[in-house]
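W.,

You were right to be curious about this one. When I first looked at the sequence I had no strong expectations either way, so I just let the prediction run and decided to look at it fresh. Below is the sequence, 328 residues in total, followed by the output.
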Amino acid sequence: MVAITRATLARQLQPSNIKTVKSRAIRKKVNKQKKRTVRKQTAPSSSSSNVITNNTTISVPSQAYNDVLGKSNITDALAYDCHWNPVGREYDLGRDGAFMGFSILIAQFYADCQFNDTAMQKPIDELKMKGFQVKHVKTEYECIKELASNQYQVAWIISNSSIQNANFVPSLTAFHSNGGAIFLFADNTPYVSHANEFLGKKFGVTVEGNYWGGNTMTYEETGHRQKGHFGQHDIFTGIKNLFEGITICHPVYSTAASRKVFVPIATATDGETSIAIYDPPSSSTSNEGRLCLDCGFTKLYINWDSAGTARYIVNASCWLLRIENRFT
């Protein structure tokens, strides 16, 4: 049972104190942020990604994202933590405060004595640093109600062992079809139900497994499908080493075509996919939002301070928004 093993793991896998190592190169560049105009949208538009403010045309990505966008192997940071990931918020994907006006719904269907409101406050606080407004709910009824409100651009869905409300999957599907982005979290079987049901109907992909991980994946530019590695992707900005999770499931692809649509970007040390994404092309005529599946949600509370976890979770949330398509 997850609740039993995690109580033990919390004692065994406490994060070590961070040690910083100063690099020889000292960055003197100061990033100056300009004002921008934001309009909330529930669906991505195909309009230009430029904003006109006070007769000045500003590139949206330069405002929302840090200069290290898409870079994992950063060699000129001022300091590195004990996992050799660069220290400093300027190495995150998203700039602090750049996502004001956008909202994330967190639907937490799994909970135990450790995965409580106090534990969830850590990721919520990090999301707020980027500017997001965050709503945290714990029941399918509340989730369905909030999804229908058109107030959110991103939804986190933290799976449990069963779905109680038959309207949940249709509600989530409608949210996604109307431009909502989804961060799906699953863990070891049976705590996969919400992700499993949605992905099964969407891609014919199921989620299963209980791999005892606890290792760290390493960046390799083309290592998306290499055992114990993750590849180049904006989600991994500022991350050279990333904790894989503990009790980990994996997606099971029914066809080769489904793997090309729901794409693996990280592979756990058992050789199975641990993170996968769906990124509809900007030229697509549909309004579907982006998707990300994480196969080990214990990292949200037991391993929040482990290698790269906090940065990865917040990076993924920023990437999911696809902010460049939500400006006028």
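Here's what jumped out at me. Residues 117-129 form the longest helix (13 residues). And, maybe more interesting for your project: DSSP finds eight helices and 16 strands in the chain.

Coffee later to discuss?

I.
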